[in-house]
Amino acid sequence: MSALDTAGVAFPLRYVLYSGRPPLDLELTVEADANCVLDVRTGWSLPQSAPLRLGRFAGRLDPEPFAALVSAAAAAAAASSRAPSTDPYESATRLIGAGGGPLTPVDDEDPGAGSFEQWLRTGATALLATPLAAVDVSAEPVGDSGAAELVITAVGTTAQPILLVEPGTNEWIRLWSDGPQGPQYLEYEDIERLVAAGSLPPGVVELAPGTSLRLPLPGSAAETRRTGGFHFWWVGPGLARGGLQGDWSL
């Protein structure tokens, strides 16, 4: 199928990759002119190295992946035996929709689907260079003290609203270091002290591009190699919100 052969396919196209193990959360929306918006919400959704870049990105698909996505959408629409699920995330981890219609499972037998997913593994990371509203997340040592911090830096053209702690609820950042006895978490009491000291703003934070927040990493500073993970929230319009999660290492 050529990149211009879009007959029978309604735009915009939506491609969703979602699963629990490993946590994958990616959504790509593509218009008829190949302009696209990509949402990446976990560090496992695309191949990345530190700092992890999570959030919303914009760009334009090259002709080859655009044609492959159009092929995959047409094949999924033609697979009449595939009825949409009430909850599509429970029935498949790779879903596609067209023209605002329901999401349906990707047809594994369509060559376009395979080509597009190969592009996701090898070429989609180029879109991370053009963030709209996103954050870079990494672990950094603090001088020569042996201590370290998780650094969250906003990148893009607009502020990325995030939530790290909502006092009085069970919503606070999960930040941990791996250890021989299991993960060691930054405790809620530590988070309360950071809030009281003014180091951690409570509620939704409009993190402007170029600004950073820093949180102390739990665990022993004596370890030569440290690893762990994080989970906090992006916040969208209205009640929209979801998790941002990934690994860190030193």
Describe the structure in brief.
With 250 residues, this protein is α+β, with helices and mostly antiparallel strands. It is 16% helix and 37% strand. The chain has two domains: 117 residues, no CATH class; 115 residues, Immunoglobulin-like (Sandwich), CATH 2.60.40.
SSE layout and pairing:
Blueprint: E1 13-19, E2 24-30, E3 35-40, E4 52-60, H1 63-78, H2 88-91, E5 94-98, E6 104-105, H3 111-122, E7 131-141, E8 148-156, E9 160-163, E10 174-177, E11 184-185, H4 188-196, E12 204-207, E13 212-216, E14 227-235, E15 241-249
Antiparallel strand pairs: 1-2, 1-5, 2-3, 3-4, 4-7, 5-6, 7-8, 8-13, 9-12, 9-14, 10-11, 10-14, 14-15
Helix pairs in contact: 1-3
Task: Write up this protein.
There is one protein chain. This protein is α+β, with helices and mostly antiparallel strands and 250 residues long. The protein has two domains: 13-129, no CATH class; 135-249, Immunoglobulin-like (Sandwich), CATH 2.60.40. It is built from four helices and 15 strands. It has helices spanning 63-78, 88-91, 111-122, 188-196; strands at 13-19, 24-30, 35-40, 52-60, 94-98, 104-105, 131-141, 148-156, 160-163, 174-177, 184-185, 204-207, 212-216, 227-235, 241-249. It has a nine-stranded antiparallel beta sheet. Strands 9, 10, 11, 12, 14 and 15 form a six-stranded antiparallel beta sheet that branches. A hairpin with a 4-residue loop joins strand 2 (24-30) and strand 3. The longest helix is centred in the N-terminal third of the chain and has 16 residues, at 63-78. The radius of gyration is 20 Å and the shape is elongated. The mean pLDDT is 89.
